[in-house]
Specification:
The chain has a domain at about 65-160: T-fold, CATH 1.10.3980. About 35% of the residues lie in helices and about 25% in strands. It has 9 helices and 17 strands. The protein has a 9-stranded mixed beta sheet. A hairpin with a 3-residue loop joins strand 14 and strand 15 (about 320). Helix 2 runs antiparallel to helix 7 (about 170-185). The protein binds adenosine-5'-diphosphate and magnesium ion. Magnesium ion (MG) binds next to strand 10 and helix 8.
Length: about 350
């Protein structure tokens, strides 16, 4: 009898403790984790009693295995190595390619997923520190033409002319965060930050009823991960593009990974970094890359015409903040100058 009473008390104590711990965990202490996926560091901070970080990590690994142009066995790899034959793909991959093709058209091919022959060339250059021959750049450039991607919706198949290729690197991270959002939703997470190398970030829900305060990295101090400003936001995706994270310096000139398909060379943009905020991860990721290639003046026009939420930093440390983000933006670094 005595034992039973003690066990009952013990049980009540455990229930109270569990409820108490999950409440405090939920509200104040996130479950933090780090992994490596999609060629970058994945950081998650999850405000929840259940740890779903592994599920999210696995979903991102699946995305990488399906979408990476550089991974043997991926659907994109199969398309790129089909020598002109059509390749059937999953519905998800088909739809992302279909969206990418329409983004390419609407951007006047500033964003072009057929960039693979050039992006592969410049990936090698960045990794080896050796410039490609001019002739190699012009032959690769001749193989980039987003108009020549044939989509067969009925059979979910893609056909490319021989030697052409797809690279979804500019949209895949943002798109993949949509799957992470679904996992958080299905597992009762109240709030979470899921960041892919700081270039694509999902803010899920909120932080105990408050906005998340996110630091924007200075494009001029990438090695120290210094932040120059903050954005207070919830329930959105944040995508940042810039030439400061993946690059090489040859003879005093910087060569980065975002390509101007019209020249075949890394885009000579006067933008140091551009951040786009929105509800659609794939769109934000596409848009930040597209605005970077377009340069500052055109980028501002596009942002204002389309009422986009965006922050643009120029190479000479000027900061433009869209009116829509005005009340959420705080500048921390005095060496930057607000221009609006
Ligand atoms: P990150 O991958 O660093 O987040 P982005 O989203 O801006 O940056 O995408 C850059 C990647 O997109 C490159 O590594 C390459 O794979 C691909 N890419 C480069 N130039 C273009 C372009 N003009 N259009 C579409 N994709 C591009
Ligand atoms: Mg992008």
């Amino acid at each position: 009898m005595k034992i039973k009473k003690t066990s009952a008390l013990m049980l009540v104590f455990l229930i109270v403790m569990t409820v108490f711990c999950s409440c405090t965990k939920n509200k104040n202490t996130p479950i933090s984790s780090q992994h490596y996926v999609m060629d970058t560091v994945l950081s998650q901070k999850i405000y929840s009693s259940a740890d779903v970080s592994d599920k999210a990590y696995k979903a991102l690994q699946d995305e990488e295995n399906r979408l990476s142009a550089f991974k043997e066995g991926s659907e994109i790899y199969a398309i790129n190595n089909a020598s002109g034959k059509s390749v059937s793909v999953s519905k998800e991959t088909f739809e992302l390619i279909e969206r990418s093709v329409s983004f390419a058209k609407e951007s006047g091919y500033l964003f072009d997923v057929s960039v693979y022959p050039l992006s592969r060339l410049w990936k090698d250059a960045i990794e080896s520190g050796k410039l490609p021959e001019k002739s190699a750049v012009s032959s690769a450039k001749a193989l980039v033409d987003g108009n020549k991607i044939t989509l067969d919706k009925q059979n979910l198949s893609i056909t490319l002319p021989e030697n052409m290729g797809l690279d979804l690197g500019a949209i895949a991270k943002g798109a993949a965060l949509e799957n992470v959002r679904e996992i958080y939703e299905q597992n009762g997470v109240s709030g979470a930050i899921c960041s892919l190398g700081n270039s694509a970030m999902l803010l899920f829900g909120n932080k105990a009823g408050e906005d998340f305060k996110i630091g924007l990295r200075s494009p001029f101090k990438a090695e120290t991960a210094q932040t120059f400003a903050t954005l207070s936001l919830r329930d959105c995706v944040i995508s940042t593009s810039g030439g400061y994270e993946r690059y090489t310096e040859i003879d005093g000139k910087t060569y980065h990974h975002i390509i101007d398909t019209k020249t075949g060379y890394p885009a000579e943009s006067d933008i140091a970094s551009v951040t786009v905020v929105g509800s659609d991860g794939a769109f934000c990721d596409y848009m930040s890359t597209r605005l970077f290639v377009d340069g500052f003046n055109n980028a501002i026009k596009i942002i204002e015409q389309n009422n986009l939420d965006a922050v643009v930093v120029t190479n000479d440390e000027k900061v433009y903040v869209s009116k829509t983000l005005e009340s959420r933006f705080e500048l921390l670094d005095g060496s930057f100058e607000r221009i609006n």
